[in-house]
Amino acid sequence: MNATELQIKDLENLIGNLKESLLFQKASILNKSHEFKAEQSSVSAHGDEAEIASLDASNNISIHLHERDRTALYSIERALGKISDGTYGQCEACGEMIAARRLQARPFTALCIDCMEEQESHSNIYQ
Ligand SMILES: [Zn+2]
Fold first, then answer.
1. C-alpha 62 – ligand 1 centre gap (Å)
2. Which segments does the record annotate as dksA C4-type zinc fingers (predicted)?
């Protein structure tokens, strides 16, 4: 087995595990936002002022989480889409395969290490 075959084998294993974990993460985010909505509607049905005040505080946290979850959900959907059309693991800039080790560490990465470094050398906004 040469290095390329090994990389492909690694990638297949990685994608198999990743897909499961992405689907699990997606389900738990959707579950959470469902609970959040249920909480919202039950409180509006009955609420004195103290309850509303404490609701405001927890709402801010929930909205914040919600925003973060939305971003996470977007990344998850994007990765799942790539897995299903067979483009997962390809660098979006140069089209080369991203190293399996890199994908393992950063499953949502869209660039190979070379392109990432190239991009960072032009701008350090994201560092
Ligand atoms: Zn690249």
1. 37
2. 91-115
Token pair of 52, please? Answer: 């509303």
Q: Domains in the chain: how many in total?
A: 2
Q: In this structure, are 117 and 60 located in the same domain?
A: no
Residues 25 and 51 reside in one and the same domain: yes
Q: How far is the CA of 31 from the centre of ligand 1 (A)?
A: 35
Please indicate, yes or no, whether residues 108 and 53 belong to a single structural domain of this protein: no
**CB under 8 Å to 55, separation ≥6 — which residues?**
43, 47
The terminus-to-terminus CA distance of the chain in angstroms comes to 38
| Average pLDDT estimate for 79-93 | 94
Per-residue pLDDT tens digits for 34-69? 776 676 666 555 556 666 556 665 555 555 667 888
**All residues with CB under 5 Å from ion ligand 1:** 91, 93-94, 112, 115
Show the domain range for 62: 3-87
